[in-house]
Amino acid sequence: MRDPRTGHHSVGRGFLALTASVAPRLLILRALGLGDLLTAVPALRAIRAARPDHHIVLATHPRWAPLVELTDAVDELLSLAGLNQELRWTGAPPELAVNLHGSGPQSHRLLAGIEPGELLAFGCAAARHVGPEWRPDEHEVRRWCRLVSQGWSCPVDPGDLRLRRPEGIDAQGVGLGRGGMRAGGVVVLHPGAAFPARRWPAERFAAVARWAQARGLTVRITGSAEERDLAGSVAGQSRLGPEAVLAGQTSVDRLAALICDARLVVSGDTGVAHLAFAYGTPSVTLYGPISPVLWGPPATGPHLALWYGVASNQPFATTADPGLLSIGSAAVIAAAAEVLAYGEADAGGTASSRTRATT
Description:
Layout: E1 2-3, E2 8-10, H1 14-18, E3 25-29, H2 34-39, H3 41-50, E4 55-60, H4 65-71, E5 76-79, E6 96-99, H5 106-112, E7 118-120, H6 140-152, E8 186-190, H7 202-214, E9 218-221, H8 228-237, H9 252-261, E10 264-268, H10 271-279, E11 283-287, H11 292-295, E12 303-307, H12 322-325, H13 329-345, E13 354-357
Parallel strand pairs: 3-4, 3-6, 4-5, 6-7, 8-9, 8-10, 10-11, 11-12, 12-13
Antiparallel strand pairs: 1-2, 2-5
Helix pairs in contact: 3-6, 7-8, 7-13
């Protein structure tokens, strides 16, 4: 339920949600994108385990509410689409606040403004906050795990990325009921990304789609409403019908169900890749401006990261990253075939993720 005056949403942990008035409150800030939310899941679970008596509120974008519920780590969502918005906290200050958003100073000051009893955050001289050292070369998952571990001297498992599958969503609900589904299973192609720097060319995704069809796999192309033309271009170049294009037609929970049930996910370095990591779905992820050392797959799972080997560190550029463009469709098809075979041979789930240079 949501209170329209405050932007607060209950996310389904019934007991603590009912006792919020008496339980001490703990606020976590992570008002970023889909991949950012998913990389913070191990830290969220560690906070839940370390402070089981607290009512945990997560300040994040409201569109992620269905996924926040699937973590089983949060009691309430406070709508916040970015640091430039007002943090609409009501009532007494939280007993604890945790900055899982960034290194500061803006995020530190936003939390300090509601006067929490304690603020756990990385050290930031500009915000006059003393805390663990920020390390720019640290993997995103391990960074936030270390903050919680060092700050509270508690155990954290960086591999604890898993989400529950959303309940009550069947094949029809994720767009597989139209046009039938082939016996080989579903390959999800996600050609979009927030910025052009991380978008692999549509014609190369189309080559992967043609390979998947020839292998007897059902292809579905995902994306936002703004990426529907891009998804349609991939479908057109691979002679797929309109039923293959799900861009702009899947809610967040339906997208999660689709990724959970898929045989394979092929995407750039986007939130959809992190959904595949969360569900252990075999995946091939194409990296360009940012190294997979920082944002790559977990150590275990049937995942293969392809990378040119040189990071431009320009993820917001308006043209495709040269390193990303160096990855050819033949390399991706070979990787996809390998990951599928690897996943089939590793039914027990002990496969190791790998990164492969394309030079």
